Amino acid sequence: MGVERRIDRIAEPWGSRTPYGPGAEWPVRVDQHLEPGVDPGEPTWVETASILHSNGDALEVAVRDGRMVGVRGIARSRVNRGRLGPKDLYGWQANGSRDRLTQPLVRRRGELQPETWDVAMDLIAERSRALLGDPGPGAIGFYTTGQLFLEEYYTQATIARAGIGTNHIDGNTRLCTATAGEALKESFGCDGQPGSYSDVDHADVIVLYGHNAAETQAVLWMRMLDRLAGPNPPKVICVDPRRTPVARHADVHLPLRPGTNLALLNALVHELIANGWIDEGYVREHAVGFAELERRTRACTPEWAAQICAADAGEIRAAARMIGTAERLLQTVLQGVYQSHQATAAACQVNNIAILRGMLGRPGCGVLQMNGQPTAQNTRETGANGDLPGFRNWDNTAHVEDLARVWNVEPLQIPHWGPSSHAMEIFRHVEEGSIRLLWITGTNPAASLPELHRIRSLLDRDSLFLVVQDIFATETTSLADVVLPAATWGEKLGTFTNADRTVHISGKAVEPPGAARPDLDIFLDYAERMDFRDRDGAPLIKWHDPESAFEAWKDCSHGRPCDYSEITYARLRETAGLQWGGERLYADGRFFAAPAECETYGRDLLTGAALEETEYRALNPAGKAILKAADYLPPNELPSAEHPLLLTTGRTLYHFHTRTKTARAPQLQAAAPDVWVELSRADAAARGLAEGDLAEVSSPRGSVRARVRVCGVRPGVAFVPFHYGYWDHADGHDRAANELTITAWDPVSKQPLFKAGAVEVTKVADAQGEVAPAPTTTASQPLAEIGRVTTGDASALALETLAS
Amino acid sequence: VKLALAIRQVREAETQLGAELGRIGERHRADHDVFHLSHTLIRLHHANLEALAPFGERYGVDVEPADAEGGGGPLARARERMSELAGRRPEAGLLLLRDLRHLHLLYAEASVDWVLLGQGAQAVRDGELLAVVEECHAQTLRGMKWTLTRLKTAAPQVLAG
């Protein structure tokens, strides 16, 4: 037995420290939260992993009398060693929420009416068949998520690409992880996370670029905190315009002006080259493109970047020296890069730094191009986003023929005239009326896409038949023609993979509510009604349940970099998580980049123009890593007299996406109940604004009302969290951050820019004793005392057990 | 020398590209990537003209960086608004194909003109001019490849619709 502590994990989100030194094993700490009155010996425990972020923390759900009554971390998991973040500890309560969707709804005379599954599914199949006849498969689109299971995505991708034969399939992963995937493809020829979370155990320098790990991957941050509390801690560099918990622990904090990441990164690379901090042997042996990279960054001095980024040249130099002299360098990247201007070019520069320094494939030497969502990795792997299944290259005839063999269909049936349509393009086709059936699964674009007035109006088009499959009523279901109630995590069996390639099995703990069905069952039902056939006339979908779907996926992934063929459900149950590809990719300096093997022939980082196969063969005949570079460009929308501040949007520790789950966990909801806007002291003072004042934030596209938090965000920047829409808000469209955001995306990864655009903040009313509903424990920590701190009530007490 | 002729030719092609990009960006405001990328490319063509300017002096041609920024004014904004509305009609896709095709052909012309200037620069042993031609031509090819990529993406939906 170990030492037990009961703590409020709302007030202490990262729990107790278990310090450890470089190369040591991360100590176990088991976190648990149970409903009052439940004895841990009493319930049955069902294994799964976290579903409210991308970290993939292994956990067990406690079940008593057919109900979820709590969770605890799994000590033997390589990912979390028993720990859980606040969202995992409390978020499970949403499953049992009384307002779950429990039966299909069909719009009749303008109103959504309850219907049977038969009627709802027949309606969808009927409409699909009609559109397939005229005008054809291009009239049907799928917009999926990063929250279903692998088996479901693979089934969905097979239906869309081989059954319907449409190129319009993408996930909301386009919003969270598209740049991660694209940057890996551009640098290493293929998707696949090079590093591993265990690199934290060994690193002597950790750089976090636009990655507020403390709030996005709380358990990964605990691992970093434990290294920082132990002997010989790593140095930390933080690139973030906000004073995040990461920034507060950093040796160097670079609070850049939003939209200037590439300028900083070009300067860092310039410094590495100018000071000879590069592993010339590694670069010569394992990379191409050095001359071009050197040329592109020659003029990018720290002074040049300092001007653009509004940062200190000395600090940029200090960061470059730390990176340049690190012995074990770990770099992590997230939305601060991915959702910003020139996203892919910047993310590729991070990869370039790892290549230049030969910091790949060894303990502590890694790159973590993170994901935002729990199962986004599977969306990418299975081809439910912009890529073909198994990281196959749409532009490589042999890859398409191989996929056609797996599915036993004609190669021409699978659209491969280009990459599949990215999300913003799918919505554009809805707007101009050429997509007439859109099937949305597990995501809420009417709150989560940029420029919401546009999204609402196009989803509301008469020409569109909108199917929405979800677990709660949302802003998006309210626009649907058919609503399908889905089962979620804990109510169905399946697998999913986290950001460091760890595959988990997720068991069925409880029955779904009412008539809700697993997404897999819904897709299988649709395939049957549509009677999709292979080229021999046999059913296209040859599986019938999660495990047979997994076995089919194993065939599809066999021989590809994301090869699952050695993994079985039984092994996943034994191990509490297995990594495909081993602990680290590229240990031997070999990449999946040979022309016959690579997932893409690459794109121009400035414009997104596609390279032809011949160009790729000329550039990279031997399949080495590719050093790619682009010049810095100013952002699409610059501050003006009317809108002098730069907008950045993002998440807070306590919530996920549009809060459909986290707002239904009382402890999480209370910790951050409503929207706020963060300003620096100078910007607040210049507008006569103080803590708690009600303000209007306006952009050329719309406006929202929010209370002001004066905190450590850099001057010239306003931050608004994106979680707060309208499903639990009485009236008007004055709350969602995406009323403000601009419709623009990175030309390479097509990831929308949520950290861009210009705004002004003006006062509406005095605080009158109110404070902003923002947490005090996070990046939104106020600069001055505000007379309130974020804590939980008695129900937030969780148990920690530390190995003694 | 007749090099002046080749410089003038490049200048005209690059100026025309800038102006055409401005117009096409405006007209396809509802295709947001086209709108934003047109501004990126205009910037490249502007830089090309600037890089060429000293050689205009050297060979006696006027190479003022043309005012090719396009957009920004109230009239342009009104046109953009119109195009946003028009962008919701099914013909928008066909118009986009037509405009990008036109743009691609202009790029092909500009590319040929850079090649000719490069050949001339070699013949008169002007190494400086040759270096500028190589850099600028690469930027123009970038735009040319982009138009082709974008055409290939847009065509299937329009043509099968």
Description:
The complex is a heterodimer of chains A (about 800) and B (about 160). With about 800 residues, chain A is of the alpha/beta class. Helices cover about 30% and strands about 20% of the residues of chain A. In chain A, helix 12 (about 300-310) packs across helix 13 (about 315-325). Chain A is globular. The termini of chain A are close together. By secondary structure, chain B is mostly helical. In chain B, helix 1 (about 5-25) packs antiparallel against helix 2 (about 30-60), helix 2 runs antiparallel to helix 5 and helix 4 (about 90-125) packs antiparallel against helix 5 (about 125-160). The chains are: A alpha/beta (about 800), B mainly alpha (about 160). The interface of A and B includes residues 421 and 633 of A.
| Average pLDDT taken over every residue of chain A | 97
Residues in β-strands, percent of chain A = 15-25%
Over the alpha carbons, how many angstroms does the gyration radius of chain B reach? 17 Å
Shape annotation of chain A:
globular
Radius of gyration from the alpha-carbon trace of chain A, in angstroms: 25 Å
Structural class, from secondary structure content of chain B?
Answer: mainly alpha
Task: Give me the secondary-structure category of chain A.
Answer: alpha/beta
Q: Considering DSSP H and I runs of 4 or more, what fraction of the residues of chain B is helical? A: over 70%
Strand content of chain B: under 5%
What is the molecular shape of chain B?
A: elongated
Q: How is the quaternary structure best described? A: heterodimer
Main interface pair? Answer: A-B, 32 and 29 residues
SSE arrangement of chain B, N to C: HHHHH
* Mean pLDDT figure of chain B: 91
Q: What's the number of extended β-strand segments of chain A?
A: 29
Strand order of the largest sheet of chain A: 7-6-18-17-16-8-9
Unreliably modeled segments of chain B: none
Biggest sheet statistics of chain A: 7 strands, mixed
Helical content of chain A (DSSP H or I, runs of 4+)? 25-40%
Biggest pleated sheet of chain B = none
